[in-house]
């Protein structure tokens, strides 16, 4: 039976229409699940390519691009931590900075002076231009570096200044690049407390997207979009893009250059691969980062996503491609309609629940009651599909973040719908305004944060691996030295005692291993009262001596890195924030003299 508007009240007709649209969207959301189920039932799993990140003899040379605009607060921690954590040796960081961002330039320059595999790429124009424009400048800097050093990078990996790169991620990209021209490592938010609702919606959405949608795209032969971070590109692809676009690999006018380059690579006939989520010894192998914690920042970031993926790509690429490609275009763009509908549904649901309680208390009919049986059936079908969606998302979230955290998925869905709807309206408004005024879209910068020391506790690479990869000594000599040492500290002491390594080289190797900055301290300029800012027993217990107080921070030095628990214990002795610097054994002995003289 087909319903006509004359058979229904306006309210019942509107509710039926809304339920019908939501039901169609629910059917659509079920398609990626069916694709993954079909793949699982067919048992056609792609062969797992073994990777050995510790074998540096055949490693592809990888360049990591990090575009930066006002990232001075997070860049140093990001680079130092990842240099210490990554279990891969043949890679270099290229940090893109702008001439009108001096704090970030200072941090990047300091890092490049400390580490031979960190390089600064200065953009020619003041920022912010666009992320794509910054990446193009980084690519040019890499090409100049190759000419100067007579070498060639095989793979380009994109990352942001807030990324925590998994120690095994580059090893996976290296292995999968044998068969694929583009490899995408999963991206997940860092875990946050249950009540951090804004950041938690990223956990919910990314858990489902990285578990189901990204895999379904590859299974059905469609394009795999780059997530913007953790994406490895074959050098040949970027060179082809450079030839076609007059040297501009990434389109400076695009707000989501990563998404569009994924579409281009697929259309050009190259193979793409999404590395499925799998667990290492301690955690899932994925790029981790903090996403916006505040509503305003989340709306700002998602406005850029909607503008670039749904609007700009629609304008520039259209609906060209195979049937599956067009289907995924629809999936990526339907939020222009479904995001406002989802918020409207939430408003109707909350209003209906409130009025139901009020009607029960007042003993009156429910104002939202629907009597037409077909509308009632449609509403129930929509409810069942929405419950299935939430249950599926809770399962994905529970697997990655714990089932206690997953219990908040239904409540957080209301918050997520509000943010997505606001971002959609804002994106459409900005896009229309830019088209009418013929303005360029600028880089909508998101404020970034980086995890604390406690959140960054990872298994560090052995000192022997650092010494070998850094070329500090030959493998045979290192192997002989390891016979006389069971721990990293014993190995360091033995190498110094036999003169196999200089104090400066050992200090640099320990800095790489621990992500702690090394420093050259002029002991003659250190005041005794500063050196005695902490009790003497602190030096004996933790092996550190203060040497400077600056900008409300107490700078302490040691020839070995204290344990992670030491920093909490040290808070009992000073209200100042503590900054640690590695120094050579000789420098530390002279500092101790100031303390005990």
Walk me through this protein's architecture.
By secondary structure, this protein is α/β, with parallel strands linked by helices. Among the domains are: 62-292, Alpha-Beta Complex (Spore Coat Polysaccharide Biosynthesis Protein SpsA, Chain A); 460-515; 516-597, Type II secretion system, protein E, N-terminal domain (GMP Synthetase, Chain A, domain 3, 2-Layer Sandwich). The chain contains 22 helices and twelve strands. The strands form three sheets. A seven-stranded mixed β-sheet has the order 3-2-1-4-7-5-8, sandwiched between helices. Helix 1 crosses helix 12 (373-401) and helix 2 (75-85) packs parallel to helix 3. The longest helix has 33 residues, at 10-42. The model is unreliable at 1-7 (pLDDT under 50).
For this entry, give a set of tags.
7-stranded mixed β-sheet; Spore Coat Polysaccharide Biosynthesis Protein SpsA, Chain A; globular; single chain; GMP Synthetase, Chain A, domain 3; alpha/beta; 597 residues
Topology diagram in text:
Blueprint: H1 10-42, E1 62-67, H2 75-85, E2 91-97, H3 102-114, E3 118-122, H4 131-149, E4 155-158, H5 169-176, E5 182-184, E6 187-189, H6 197-219, E7 231-234, H7 235-244, H8 257-267, E8 272-274, E9 287-289, H9 295-317, H10 323-333, H11 335-362, H12 373-401, H13 403-406, H14 409-437, H15 463-469, H16 475-482, H17 488-497, H18 503-514, H19 528-531, H20 536-542, E10 545-550, E11 553-558, H21 566-570, E12 577-582, H22 585-596
Helix pairs in contact: 1-6, 1-12, 2-3, 2-18, 6-12, 6-14, 9-14, 11-14
